[in-house]
């Protein structure tokens, strides 16, 4: 059965990017790409992606603009209120507003595989607000930033399901219980 999972790296103090959307703090860390809770293994279980426009813009600016290709074969919903540039050959669907129809479409497209909420944190929060976020997987880098783009700016209870170390990272998998009273 399809699950909706927010999978991301974070700083120890709960930021997924700095105030300028830089991931320098992340890309310099030591990680085993075949180690616990690695990206490729997770992606193999994913049938559809949903991301916010800043995350999409980061990929455009830092990956596509430097000659990289769109790495995802799965359909990807990009949440935005603006008209953004699509990427040739990529299955990208722009959407806005309530998250429920996007969740329904993405879950149907995933064909039993998981829906990956790529980020940012408020987008994951929108899924949680609607009771549609099943799990959170974080790789915690050994760095603090003091400020930046938040990991998950909501009050939620979660259940710790799994922990592992991947070189520099503490990796943790949680099930979402629901809003914290
Ligand atoms: N550490 C990691 O592994 C990791 C993972 C993912 C992302 N990131 C980074 O973290 C940062 C996240 O940026 P962010 O906090 O700004 O979050 P984001 O979710 O990437 O982008 C937020 C923007 O998405 C649009 N949006 C979100 N929900 C919407 C909705 N329901 N309807 C219409 N538009 C909606 C809005 O912009 P507009 O309407 O103006 O377009 C909103 O300002 C990025 O720099 C990204 O590269 C890091």
Write the layout of secondary structure elements.
Layout: E1 4-11, E2 15-17, H1 24-27, H2 39-44, E3 46-52, H3 53-64, E4 76-79, E5 92-95, H4 99-110, E6 114-119, H5 121-129, E7 135-141, E8 149-150, E9 156-166, E10 169-179
Parallel strand pairs: 1-6, 1-7, 3-4, 3-6, 4-5
Antiparallel strand pairs: 2-8, 7-10, 9-10
The structure holds NADP nicotinamide-adenine-dinucleotide phosphate.
Describe the structure in your own words.
- With 181 residues, the chain is α/β, with parallel strands linked by helices.
- The protein has a single domain (4-179), classed as Dihydrofolate Reductase, subunit A (3-Layer(aba) Sandwich), CATH 3.40.430.
- The protein is built from 5 helices and 10 strands; from the N terminus they run ββααβαββαβαββββ.
- It has helices at residues 24-27, 39-44, 53-64, 99-110, 121-129, and strands spanning 4-11, 15-17, 46-52, 76-79, 92-95, 114-119, 135-141, 149-150, 156-166, 169-179.
- The strands form 2 sheets. An 8-stranded mixed sheet has the order 5-4-3-6-1-7-10-9. Strands 2-8 form a two-stranded antiparallel sheet.
- Strand 9 (156-166) and strand 10 form a beta hairpin.
- Bound molecules: NADP nicotinamide-adenine-dinucleotide phosphate.
- The site of NADP nicotinamide-adenine-dinucleotide phosphate has 27 residues, from strand 1, strand 2, strand 3, helix 3 and strand 6.
- One of its GO terms (biological process) is riboflavin biosynthetic process.
- It comes from Pseudofrankia inefficax (strain DSM 45817 / CECT 9037 / DDB 130130 / EuI1c).
- GO terms for molecular function: 5-amino-6-(5-phosphoribosylamino)uracil reductase activity.
């Amino acid at each position: 059965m399809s699950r909706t999972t927010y999978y991301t790296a974070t700083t120890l103090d709960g930021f997924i990017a700095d105030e300028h959307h830089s991931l320098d703090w992340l890309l310099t860390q030591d990680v085993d790409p075949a180690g616990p809770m690695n990206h490729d293994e997770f992606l193999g279980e994913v049938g559809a992606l949903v991301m916010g426009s800043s995350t999409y813009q980061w990929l455009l600016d830092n990956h596509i603009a430097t000659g990289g290709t769109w790495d995802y074969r799965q359909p990807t919903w990009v949440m935005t209120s603006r008209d953004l540039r699509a990427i040739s050959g990529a299955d990208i669907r722009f959407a806005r507003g309530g998250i429920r129809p996007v969740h329904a479409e993405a879950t149907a497209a995933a064909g039993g595989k998981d829906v990956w909420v790529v980020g940012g944190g408020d987008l994951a929060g929108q899924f949680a607000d609607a009771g549609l976020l099943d799990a959170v997987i974080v790789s915690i880098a050994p760095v603090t930033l003091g400020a930046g783009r938040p990991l998950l700016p909501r009050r939620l209870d979660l259940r710790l399901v799994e922990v592992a170390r991947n070189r520099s990272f503490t990796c943790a998998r949680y099930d979402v219980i629901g809003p914290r009273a």
